[in-house]
Design a protein that fits this description.
alpha/beta, DNA polymerase, domain 1, ten-stranded mixed sheet, two-stranded parallel ribbon, binds iron/sulfur cluster
Length: 369
């Protein structure tokens, strides 16, 4: 393998960047478009596959550039069709992704970092710490690897929606996430609708303000508490950006982001009481938003429990009675340990999985936890 640090990672370039890169090599800019289409629409994994490039150019490209897209190392499939993937990166590190097929959409949850620095107490990935952020090519490449795998099984357009809710905090890797979104929406690439790409954040306020002005994807905020006291105890980020500051940011988002989706993981005995629900109603009063309630599935080694079913129903009913738009997620791929970080932490600990992403209701945009 060449020393990739001296070469250009073509997988991470947006189409205009790729056209300019080819122009700098003395090639026609449309070569950039061709290569972009090979990488992101036809899901090519090597320059050799790009058969409408000249043989000479295909031979020259590996001397100038490399491709950072990940490879699938492991795939597990659950009875409900959910598939969990373990991806290998070129430097030997690994991340995870989860594929959730449903009647009207097929959603892929992608990772944006190896590990995570946010340290949410209920999250398996949060126990790993941050190793490094992914490049745009490594993020978009998770879609390409899965699409290639599923297309080989005869599925046309196997992924319709992408959510950035896997390992890592996407807004802590904003440059690469912005480029990856550009790639996913490009007419010469996967051509996803901007309404079908959702980026989740724990609430990094300055990055949220930057995101909404430069990234044409939807934003979801992982809220998980209605008081600073509880949020401080489960999400260290709240000490930097307390609820008042986070909500002020959400209320001032530009029009196209005005209807925020809030994710609320219900942790048994921690944030799932009716008092918590009432406080949530007060926090969101008069604010156009959607709330996704996500009953927690216990993760081995983490001190949190699944809420009682009765609590989930009562919590959701109270929000609905107060005219809030609320959806309760159903679990997906529980037997896979399908939540972010579970496959890798299982591999380390030799433990079975617990947490799982939830599938959206048929009338809701996807947004697994
Ligand atoms: S929930 Fe998301 S932001 Fe929090 S530690 Fe896990 S991966 Fe990081």
């Amino acid at each position: 393998m060449s020393d990739s640090s001296a070469l250009s990672d073509l997988s991470s370039l947006t189409r205009p960047e790729l056209e300019r890169w080819f122009a700098r090599q003395g090639e026609k800019p449309f070569r950039g478009r061709q290569v972009f289409r090979w990488l992101h629409a036809r899901n090519a994994a090597s320059f050799e596959e790009m058969t409408d490039l000249s043989r000479a150019l295909r031979a020259r490209l590996p001397e100038l550039a490399w491709l950072s897209a990940p490879a699938i190392l492991e795939e597990r499939q659950a009875g409900d069709g959910t598939r969990k993937y373990r991806f290998g990166l070129r430097d030997g590190l690994q991340v995870e992704g989860v594929y959730m097929p449903e009647e009207r959409r097929r959603t892929l949850c992608v990772s944006t970092q190896v590990g995570c620095a946010q340290g949410c107490r209920f999250c398996a990935t949060g126990t790993m710490g941050l190793t490094r952020s992914l490049s745009a090519g490594e993020i978009a490449g998770q879609l390409e690897a899965v699409s290639r795998r599923l297309a080989a099984e005869g599925l046309a357009r196997p992924v319709t929606n992408v959510v950035f809710m896997g390992m890592g905090e996407p807004l802590a890797n904003l440059e690469a996430v912005a480029a990856a979104v550009d790639i996913l929406l490009d007419d010469f690439g996967p051509k996803l609708s901007r309404r079908h790409v959702t980026v989740s954040t724990v609430g990094l306020v300055p990055q949220m303000e930057e995101f909404v002005h430069r990234v044409p994807a939807k934003l979801a905020v992982s809220l998980n508490a209605s008081s600073d006291e509880v949020r401080d105890s489960i999400m260290p980020v709240n000490r930097r950006y307390p609820l008042a500051e986070l909500m002020r940011c959400c209320r001032n988002l530009p029009e196209q982001h005005a209807r925020v989706t809030f994710e609320y993981v219900l942790l048994g005995g921690v944030n799932d009481s009716l008092a918590d629900a009432r406080a949530l109603v007060a926090l969101l009063a008069g604010f156009p938003c959607k709330i996704n309630l996500i009953p927690y599935n216990p993760c081995p080694g983490l001190p949190y429990e699944r809420p009682e079913e009765r609590r989930v129903v009562e919590f959701g009913d109270l929000l609905a009675e107060r005219q809030l738009s609320v959806f309760v997620r159903k679990s997906r791929g529980v037997e896979l340990g399908a939540a972010c970080g579970q496959l890798l932490t299982q591999a380390r600990r030799g433990t079975p999985g617990g947490c799982a992403p939830r599938s959206p209701r048929p009338d809701e945009p996807p947004s697994p936890g």
